[in-house]
Design goal:
By secondary structure, the protein is of the alpha/beta class. Helix content is 46%, strand content 19%. The chain contains 7 helices and 5 strands, in the order αβββαβαβαααα. It has a 5-stranded mixed β-sheet with strand order 3-2-1-4-5. α3 links the parallel β4 and β5. α2 runs parallel beside α3 and α4 crosses α6. The longest helix is centred in the first third of the chain and has 19 residues. It is globular and about 70 Å long. It starts with a helix and ends in a 7-residue tail after the last helix.
Length: 191
């Protein structure tokens, strides 16, 4: 596996945290080529104890980091729901996944679900199915390789969103408006 991993200039691990199902995906980047290295889910509903679920999340994320040696992690931020207990559990799951990556010095970036959906589909309110379909097209994933659980494609979407965001050119000072440009460069105005 390590020989295959060397072909990539950068590997991004995406995580869709959950307390019943956690999605994960690894995206390889080489120049303008993108490829899915692995994606899947960790099913946690077989564990009755919430703390055992957290332990399993930590172990699986740490194992993925050791196996695939990602350069960066993109993780979906918990969304704010009405059930405080569910939010608390989801936040713990996210925190454990983050801790596993940090323990191996992997830098982490967190993205709001709407931002991820917007980056992938152009619509911040897109459904999980729309996100999965767009990923399938953009990354040329065969129908046979599409996962059954959309948590895996959500994790892949987080990784791809991170690639898009980190590939944007860095803006040099100012807001970028014409008014700001003219204010900074009055000598360039035609008289």
């Amino acid at each position: 596996m390590n020989g295959e991993l060397r072909q990539w200039e950068k590997i991004i691990i995406g995580i869709d945290p959950g307390t019943n199902v956690m999605g994960y995906a690894l995206l390889g980047v080489k120049a303008k080529t993108l490829g899915v290295i692995a994606m899947g889910v960790l099913r946690l509903n077989k564990f009755e104890d919430h703390y055992m679920r957290l332990r399993r999340i930590y172990e699986r994320v740490a194992g993925l980091v050791e196996e695939f040696l990602p350069d960066e992690m993109a993780i979906e931020a918990p969304f704010f729901g009405k059930n405080v207990q569910s939010m608390l559990k989801l936040g713990r799951a996210q925190g454990v996944a983050i801790a596993a990556a940090l323990s191996r010095q992997v830098p982490i970036t967190e993205y709001e679900p709407r931002k991820i959906k917007m980056a992938i589909t152009g619509n911040g309110a897109a459904s999980k199915e729309q996100v999965a379909a767009m990923l399938q097209r953009v990354l040329a994933i065969s129908p046979d390789d599409m996962p059954r659980f959309l948590d895996a494609t959500d994790a892949l979407a987080a990784a791809l969103c991170h690639h898009y965001e980190s590939s944007k050119p860095i803006k040099s000072g100012g807001s970028g408006s014409w008014k700001d440009f003219i204010a900074r460069h009055p000598d360039r105005l035609a008289r």
